Amino acid sequence: MSRLLPAGVALLALAAASPVAAPPSAEPATVPQIAVPAGTFRIGEQVPVVLAGWPAGTVQLDVCGNGGRRGALDCATSRAAHGQVPPSGTVSLPVVLAAPPVACPCLLRARTPTGTTRATTDLRLAGVTAPPAPVPAGTPELVIAGLRATDLAGAYGWFGLPGDLSVDLTLHNAGSTDIVDPPFSLLFGRPGRVRGIVEAPALGTIGAGQTREYRILVPMDDAIVGRHELHGRIDLPGHPVAFAVDAARHPWGLLGLVAVPLMWLLARLRRRPRPTRREAVGSGRAGRRA
């Protein structure tokens, strides 16, 4: 037993020091792209729009004035075009150009229904009679007032099993003008390899002086072990806001699954009867007489 116990302790130490292999990170996501033919177009004209690098599913395309600086306020969202992107991520969609609510410079904006993926391209549009966008009374100033991550996996996380990560985000508009549906993007992954796209909620309108709270659910469908980070970016014109929150999951339950059988085996070996010195000597004399 004196030789087995140090060996068992060393094995436990080795299991605790050895990290459990995490699944390989996904390849970097393709940058979504949108393109229109060269030239000047008119309101009501149908234009072929090419999308590449998009996730499969529904896509919405809006014509925006004012360079889309105020988000949905500058875009003809009520007359947006919709289409389906195949699994290949590349598609050509016919889009009838609607009149933007404000004057140009104009652009064509493509986005998924949740706004997780979006891209824009400049659009030379003639015949726009809408007035210029009003000059904002002040500069929007967005402040992150709260940020907290909670692992919802519970006991499943002790074994590195899948489970959602909940992130509570509190935003405060300290400026004197409303912030309307700013672009919001989220990425999740291991430190230094934060590449996985996470569906970001629509932020809606954050009024001047208003504080709003959001809950973001990060699905972790694969086994997650060790430290992971969620990076967020809110693209305000000239004042982007970025944040990062990390979470760690250590599968101590897996070490327990190794340690319990090992300790049971050591206990069995310890209980095994061993011959006494007198029995060993008696056996030796009997053998010599024979």
From TrEMBL:
Record field: transmembrane: 252-269
Keyword set, alphabetical order: Membrane, Signal, Transmembrane, Transmembrane helix
Lineage, top ranks: Bacteria, Bacillati, Actinomycetota, Actinomycetes, Micromonosporales
Organism: Micromonospora peucetia
Signal peptide segment: 1-21
Source domain of life: Bacteria
Protein name listed in UniProt: Neocarzinostatin family protein
